[in-house]
Design goal:
The protein folds into 2 domains: about 80 residues, Orthogonal Bundle (Non-ribosomal Peptide Synthetase Peptidyl Carrier Protein, Chain A), CATH 1.10.1200.10; about 260 residues, Rossmann fold. It is built from 12 helices and 7 strands. Strands 1-3-2-4-5-6-7 form a 7-stranded mixed sheet, sandwiched between helices. Helix 1 runs antiparallel to helix 2. The N and C termini lie far apart (about 50 Å).
Length: about 375
C-alpha cells in the first residue's frame, strides 16, 4: 500500500513520460488514450520501480489500463481492473463487414506526422470557456474547418469551433486512415471543451466520418457526447468513396468546391484527392448503444451539382451510387444506413438549400445556420 505522497510521485513520473500534468488526469481515462504506448509503458513501469521504489509489474498499465484503476492498485487494491467499472469495454463496437482491423497508427498518433502548417482549430463564434454549448465541426474533403466561418451567428450562448486538417497545405503527406485522423484531432477537442459539459460534434461530408470516429474515442474514454450532427454526409455502408475520375471531371468542369465562376484552388483539390484515398479504405464499425449519442441530427441538401448529367458534358459512370448522390437531385434523404452504426438514437432530419459543394457558400450557408441554431441554441 503506497502513501499518497508516493502515489503522487508515480503519477508525476507517468506525467513526465507523456507530457501531461498529473492534475489533468481523469480517473476514467485510459493510459493508451493519454498516449502511453506499449514500449513507453514498459519503460515507465521500470521508472516507477527505480525512482519511486514501488514494485509494479512490467505490464502494470495493461493490468490497470485506466488512471482510476492504477490509483486503486497503488493504494493497495488486490484485484485487477477486470471488475473495475471505470475501465472502458474493449468491445465498444462490432464490425459489419469482415476484414482487416482499422489502421489506428502507432501509439503516438503524431509519430511521423509533419508539423501542421495551420492551427488545428479555429474558434469561429463565441468563447469556449463561457458558452453554454460548444459545437465542434469537422471539415469536408477540403480539410478547411475555416470554411464554416461563413455561418451566421448561431446563438449568443454557442461557441462554434472549426477543425482544420493537419495536412492542409501539405496534402502529399496525407496518407493515414480516417481513424488515425480522428486521433490527431481528439486531443485538440478535449483541450477546448469545458470540463463537465457533454460534447456536440458534427461534420460535413467526410467530416461526418471524422466526427463519428471522434465520438468513438471520447465515449471509449468515458466522456459523454450529447449530439452528433451529420451534414450531407453519405454513410460509408451505403456509398462508395468518390472515384478519382469523378474528382478529375469535377475539377475540369469547375464544379469542385467552386464558388461562382472561380475554380477551386490547387491545394483544395489535392487535399480532396487525399481524403478520397482514405475514405476508400474506411469501413466504420457499430457503436454500442451506451456510446451512441442520444441525439443524431441529419442535414441534407436536395439539389444535385448539375441539372442534367448528359447536358453537363461530365464523363462519369452513373452506376456509382456516390456519383449520383453528388450530381443528381434527391428526395428527402433519411438515415441512409447511419442508423446501423448509431443504434438507439433519436434521429431528426432537416433540409437546406444548395448542392453538396455550396453548403458553406452564401446564400445557402444561411439555411444551414438556421438549422444549426434550432438544434443547438434552443
Amino acid at each position: 500500500m503506497a502513501s499518497d505522497e508516493t502515489i503522487e510521485q508515480c503519477l508525476q513520473i507517468i506525467g513526465e513520460a507523456i507530457s501531461v500534468e498529473p492534475e489533468e488526469f481523469q480517473d476514467h481515462e485510459t493510459w493508451k488514450f493519454l498516449g502511453l504506448g506499449d514500449l513507453l509503458a514498459s519503460a515507465t513501469a521500470s521508472d516507477i520501480k527505480n525512482q519511486a521504489g514501488v514494485d509494479v509489474p512490467p505490464d502494470v498499465f495493461s493490468l490497470y489500463p485506466t488512471v482510476g484503476s492504477l490509483k486503486a492498485f497503488l493504494r493497495g487494491g488486490s484485484s485487477t481492473s477486470n471488475g473495475d467499472a471505470s475501465r472502458p469495454s474493449t468491445a465498444i463496437h462490432s464490425p459489419l463487414r469482415p476484414g482487416a482491423a482499422p489502421d489506428l497508427g502507432p501509439a503516438d498518433p503524431w509519430e511521423g506526422i509533419p508539423k501542421p502548417k495551420v492551427p488545428l482549430s479555429v474558434v469561429l463564434q463565441g468563447k469556449p470557456e463561457t458558452a453554454k454549448t460548444v459545437v465542434f465541426l469537422f471539415p469536408d474533403g477540403s480539410g478547411a474547418g475555416t470554411s464554416y466561418g461563413t455561418l451566421p451567428p448561431i446563438g449568443k450562448d454557442v461557441c462554434l469551433i472549426g477543425l482544420n486538417s493537419p495536412f492542409l497545405r501539405q496534402a502529399q503527406n496525407f496518407t493515414c486512415s480516417i481513424e488515425r485522423m480522428a486521433r490527431l484531432w481528439v486531443g485538440e477537442v478535449r483541450k477546448l471543451q469545458p470540463k463537465g459539459k457533454p460534447y456536440v460534434l458534427g461534420g460535413w461530408s467526410a467530416g461526418g466520418f471524422y466526427s463519428y470516429e471522434v465520438v468513438r474515442l471520447l465515449t471509449a474514454a468515458g466522456e459523454k457526447v450529447e449530439r452528433l450532427i451529420l451534414i450531407d454526409s453519405p454513410c460509408r455502408l451505403e456509398y462508395e468513396a468518390l472515384p478519382a475520375q469523378v474528382v478529375q471531371e469535377l475539377t475540369r468542369k469547375g464544379l469542385m468546391g467552386a464558388s461562382g465562376e472561380k475554380k477551386a484552388p490547387e491545394w483544395l483539390v489535392q487535399h480532396f484527392t487525399s481524403t478520397v484515398g482514405s475514405v476508400d479504405k474506411y469501413w466504420p464499425s457499430v457503436l454500442s448503444k451506451e456510446h451512441t449519442p442520444p441525439n443524431v441530427n441529419f442535414i441534407w441538401v436536395k439539389e444535385g451539382l448539375v441539372k442534367s448529367v448528359p447536358e453537363s458534358g461530365l464523363q462519369v459512370d452513373m452506376n456509382i451510387k456516390v456519383t449520383r448522390f453528388l450530381l443528381e437531385p434527391r428526395g428527402n434523404l433519411q438515415t441512409e444506413h447511419w442508423e446501423k452504426l448509431l443504434p438507439g438514437a433519436k434521429y431528426t432530419f432537416d433540409y437546406m438549400t444548395g448542392n453538396h459543394f455550396q453548403i458553406t457558400q452564401p446564400p445557402h450557408v444561411d439555411s444551414l445556420g438556421k438549422i444549426l441554431s434550432n438544434l443547438v441554441a434552443s
